[in-house]
Amino acid sequence: MATVMVRVDEKLKKEATDLFNSLGLDMSQAVRMFLIQAVETQSIPFEIKLNTKLK
């Protein structure tokens, strides 16, 4: 088993941990699910857009 280390803001980590816990997951399980979906779909498993605002 390999280890993946990611630096994130403390607030983001807490909010994500709380969300995942409410879903019955821990951080490792949630990240693993993301990676599995990325590999299975050969894509980022959500839409990515530029945040453009009209001036």
From TrEMBL:
Domain of life: Bacteria
Signal peptide: none
GO term, biological process aspect, one: DNA-templated transcription
Pfam families named in the record: RelB (PF04221)
Keywords noted in UniProt: Toxin-antitoxin system
Cross-referenced InterPro entries: Arc_rbn_hlx_hlx, RelB/DinJ
Keyword Cell division: no
UniProt similarity note: Belongs to the RelB/DinJ antitoxin family.
The protein's name in its UniProt record: Type II toxin-antitoxin system RelB/DinJ family antitoxin
Organism in which the protein naturally occurs: Streptococcus minor
